[in-house]
Amino acid sequence: MGKKPTIYEIAKKVGVSTATVSRVLNDSPRVSDKTKKRILKAMREMNYAPRLTARKLASSKTELIGVVVPSFTTPYFNEVLKGIKDEIGRTDLDMMIYNTGSNTPKQGLNEFFGRGIADALIIISIDIPERIHKQLQATEVQTVLINTTHPEHSYFQVDDYQGGYMAAEHLVSQGHESIGIISAAEKSAVTNERTAGFQDYLSEHGIEVKDEHFVRGSISKHAGFSEESGFEAIHKFDKQGSFPEAIFCLNDTLAIGAMYALSRLGIDVPKDVAVMGYDNIKLSKYLDLTTVDQKMYSIGVNAIKQMTKLIGAADSPVVQQVTDPILVKRGSTENHA
């Protein structure tokens, strides 16, 4: 199958601007009938699949929201998607989920956008390249971001720096001075912010994370945020021959893998090593895992509420919301001294 044409190629063929093609896609009265016919003819000849169907070209009504996500098999994304699904059920909108794959999310986003099959987009945990941003502007696709930011789009996210800071504060309050970190295999804005907040609090209190106590798994599945990666990281500590008193895992699935590995080694949590996660996925409650709640479900709900406003009135103000996380104390970090 050949590469699908873009809005830029349509504009070039007809000899008009991309803005003019965009106006035709949105059934704007600002384009003459003659020019509109030429553009629609070029679309048919080039087998272009516009983001609006013929029926929507007539009504200009947005109905299909594309939800672009690196993975829908991890607990974090499941909770966000549940919030989106439940709130979209209260509207007359439809939803289509597209999994970009956690190893190449930006490439997957490019491929999805090139299909032109959604009227509006919710993009979760994927940075927006400038080229995609310009295409979103040209085609006037309403966009809401979750767990990623852009100065010209609405977004909803939790303050990851604050979450890391709170995690360190809690472990220090439990009397721990030897503290380690298990991070994901892939560096990202999320890992950087959580780590920075965590280390800044420790630094303020004269505590340093030793190089050997900062461990990354090498497994790339889910960008390294997986049980397997947490399991592997504990065995790296074991090979070094020493463990810190407490370990902050940058998400709950890493912590789950770490706790399982520790139990296999006969190391008690929290008596021998305290373990803390991040996300507050449902399973963490049943594992008695101390964690940081990201309010994943409510963020998904808020993203749809903002999208319905944008769909109802394209000139609705951009909403950029960063909320504070909540520390959830459980037994995995309890001080038994």
Itemize the secondary structure elements and their pairings.
Blueprint: H1 7-14, H2 18-25, H3 33-45, H4 54-59, E1 64-69, H5 75-88, E2 94-99, H6 105-115, E3 120-124, H7 130-139, E4 142-146, E5 154-158, H8 160-173, E6 179-183, H9 189-204, E7 214-216, H10 227-240, E8 246-249, H11 252-264, E9 274-276, H12 282-286, E10 291-293, H13 296-312, E11 320-323, E12 326-328
Parallel strand pairs: 1-2, 1-3, 3-4, 4-5, 5-11, 6-7, 6-8, 8-9
Antiparallel strand pairs: 10-12
TL;DR of this structure?
The chain has 337 residues and is α/β, with parallel strands linked by helices. It has helices at 7-14, 18-25, 33-45, 54-59, 75-88, 105-115, 130-139, 160-173, 189-204, 227-240, 252-264, 282-286, 296-312, and strands at 64-69, 94-99, 120-124, 142-146, 154-158, 179-183, 214-216, 246-249, 274-276, 291-293, 320-323, 326-328. Strand 6, helix 9 and strand 7 (214-216) form a beta-alpha-beta unit.
Beta-strand residue percentage: 15-25%
CATH 4th-level superfamily of one domain: Response regulator
Task: Classify the fold: give the CATH topology of one domain.
Answer: Rossmann fold
* CATH structural class of one domain: Alpha Beta
Name of the CATH architecture of one domain: 3-Layer(aba) Sandwich
What's the total count of β strands? Answer: 12
Name the shape in a single word. elongated
Runs in which pLDDT lies below 50 for 5 or more consecutive residues are 51-59
Coarse structural class? alpha/beta
Biggest beta sheet summary: 6 strands, parallel
What spatial order of strands do you see in the largest sheet? 2-1-3-4-5-11
Secondary-structure element order, N to C: HHHHEHEHEHEEHEHEHEHEHEHEE
Percent range of helical residues:
40-55%
Name the average pLDDT. Answer: 86
